[in-house]
Amino acid sequence: MLQQPTLNALRQLNLHAMADALDEQSRLPQIQDLSFEERLGRSWTGNSVPGINAV
């Protein structure tokens, strides 16, 4: 994935929280086991790691 260009584009669109969530998720190996929809949902709710800060 071209992560840095994606992060730059998100920030240019003033989607800073989404860029931060994507950056955080990329550093968490356990997040890779989740589907795209699960990762996206956790980005919106602030729950990046399964089982932590669960809603």
Give a written overview of the molecule.
- The chain is mainly alpha-helical and 55 residues long.
- Helices cover 56% and strands 0% of the residues.
- It has 3 helices and no strands.
- It has helices at residues 3-12, 16-26, 36-45.
- The model has no long low-confidence stretch (mean pLDDT 78).
Would you summarize the structure shown here?
It is built from 3 helices and no strands.
What keyword list fits this structure?
55 residues; 0% strand
N-C termini distance: 29 Å
- Main pleated sheet: none
Cα-based radius of gyration, to the nearest Å = 11 Å
- Beta strand %: under 5%
What helical percentage do the residues reach?
55-70%
Q: How many H/I helical runs?
A: 3
Mean pLDDT: 78
Shape: globular
| Low-pLDDT runs | none
List the helices and strands and how they pair.
Elements: H1 3-12, H2 16-26, H3 36-45
